[in-house]
Amino acid sequence: MKVQIASRNCRQYFIILFFSLFIPLFFDSCQIKKEENKPARPNILLLMSDNHSWNHLGAYGDPVVKTPNIDKIANEGVKFTHAFCASPSCTPARAGMLTGQDIWRLEEGANLWGILPNKFPLYTDLLRAAGYFVGIKGKGWGPGSFEDSGREIDHGGKQYESFDEFIRSNTENKPWSYWFSSVNPHRPYEVNSGEKSGMDKSNVIVPSYLPDNDITRGDILDYYLEVQDFDDEVGKILETLKESGQWDNTIIVICGDNGWQMPRGLANLYDFGTRIPMIFYWKDHIPGGRTVDDFMNLNDLAPTFLEINELDIPAEMTAKSLTNILYSKESGHIEQGRDFVITARERHALCRLNGVAYPGRAIRTYDYLYIRNFESDRWPAGDPPLYGDVDAHMQHYPSPTKNYILANRSEPGIDKMFEMAFNKRPAEELYDLNNDPNQMNNIAFDESYGEIKQKLADQLNNYLVNTKDPRVLGQDIIWDSTAYYETRDFKPRPNQEAIDALGLEEEYNYFPGEDNKNLKNINPSAQE
Q: What is the pTM for the complete model shown?
């Protein structure tokens, strides 16, 4: 009996010894194999258009514009149907994207043609610190002064003449992040270039907030031609990517920075100023062929890029990573809580006396758009007669649709379009998107919508309070007096066509007092 017990104990001893010696080796082997199979840190290729509304791509249903390169990526990747920018203005929209923060948290970074203080963490800097090779071509962050922001290079990275040069410059074969920031389809356009290219005016879908005539249709075709130029640029960069042999481990993101440059578009909190195309693709890692209806913000790119690389997301970032959605195999609505988006605007163009802004905040849900205008006594489109926040910046270059509305503002039908695009607005706006997708009928003062309006107003206000918006906290407001680096806007000179068509003067002065603090704040080296 004692012999059996001893034998059994011996066997147990050897079993324990086996597991203690060999199981750890087994798990170490598995871990090594797992690490070997883990993909290298992905490259990030961001391809951004300039002033491009969400619905003007073939993949988003436009029947006229031809965008085969982008459409192919959209069909094989993930297409977001409810993507928005943080602000309907280039500089703050890009600042929000780089920082992952709402624009009211970025001090001067909330304005066009200003600065973005260097104290705010940027995803580009964090990637560089983690060993990434970082570069851009084009506008990047801006327009504004990155030098007076406290930087030696653009917030987006070092400038390269082309994607090919950027790839060749990466001599250490680091993972890379490259931002191609196209000038297309930003105005000015060559008038009638779209029709000359062979596009048919009769097929253009004119939104109900614009006049449906040959002038507008031709203007839209000119815009479409530049959208197609952007698609060509995308195609060439993607071809270079394939030739480099780095396609499989590159995240491709195609998007716009804000809405199109038409009346009620750029610089407005309506969909036509804030809603953008957004497409993701990463071969074998992001399940493709999907359409996602969750709301997302351009700001979400920063925490997404960091999380994919297993880097810490700064606590300052108010945006949310998209990785749960991207790695999912589902379509439609995926992530709980992504059922609204918040957008904002401060000073776009310097187009009001003494450079004041037209501040607003908005909440967009699937069913409603609620807008709060903080200074409703000001002109939302800029002071007349230039209305410099609309379309052609201060009438520096042609804008046929804008000028047609201004010249015919008293005509039946056009009068309402003029009022919606150029006239003053009430402190609150509310639109029922199921019945009014073009956001033309403000129902904010319709008693039957009172409960809905209050709910949206409270939801917006709570978000602004939680994210420390000075506009609702009663704090100092700096955005009417911060530096503005496009000095020709102090005394804008309209183009001759606009002068002749609208009876404009040759020059306007938005700063009659030479002691104005905006003028003092301008860096003399930045002046033209």
A: 0.90
Interacting residues of 468 by C-beta distance below 8 A, sequence separation 6+: 104, 105
Q: In the CATH hierarchy, which top-level class contains the domain 353-526?
A: alpha beta
Structure tokens at 526: 């930045």
- Looking up tokens 């009876």 gives 503
Give the separation between CA 142 and CA 134, rounded to whole angstroms: 17
By the 8 A CB rule, do 280 and 286 touch?
yes
Enter the DSSP assignment of 332: B
Cβ-contact 221, 195 below 8 angstroms? yes
Question: How far is the C-alpha of 476 from the C-alpha of 249, rounded, in Å?
Answer: 46
In sign, the C-alpha dihedral spanning 290, 292, 298, 304 is negative
The helices-and-strands tally (H runs, E runs) of the chain is 16, 12
Give start and end residues of each alpha helix (H) in 316-399: 323-326
Identify the residue whose tokens are 């406290």. Answer: 150
pLDDT digits (tens, 9 = 90+) for 79-120: 999 999 999 999 999 999 999 999 999 999 999 999 999 999
| Lookup: tokens for 317 | 């970032």
Q: Taking a C-beta distance cutoff of 8 angstroms, is the pair 482, 520 a contact?
A: no
* Nearest in space to 319 (alpha carbons), one of 337, 333, 332, 331: 337
Banded model confidence at residue 36, pLDDT cuts 50, 70, 90: very low
Query: Strand 360-365 relative to strand 340-345: parallel, antiparallel, unpaired?
Result: antiparallel
417-456: per-residue pLDDT in tens? Answer: 999 999 999 999 999 999 999 999 999 999 999 999 999 9
Q: What is the DSSP letter of 426?
A: -
Lowest mean pLDDT among 301-305, 360-364, 508-512: 508-512
Mind listing the pLDDT tens digit for each residue in 54-68?
A: 999 999 999 999 999
Cα-based distances in Å from 16 to 9, 389, 456:
10, 77, 64
pLDDT digits (tens, 9 = 90+) for 5-29: 444 454 554 444 444 544 444 444 4
Query: Which tokens is 39 given?
Result: 């993909």
- Amino acid identity of residue 311, one-letter, is L
Residues 6+ apart with CB under 8 A from 380: 268, 358, 373, 389, 422, 424, 425
State the Cα–Cα distance between residues 72 and 59, nearest whole angstrom. Answer: 8
Domain ranges in the chain? Answer: 43-339, 353-526
Domain boundaries 43-339, CATH class:
alpha beta
Q: Which residue in 215, 191, 227, 213 sits closest to 58, CA to CA?
A: 227
* E strand or H helix at 407: helix 400-407
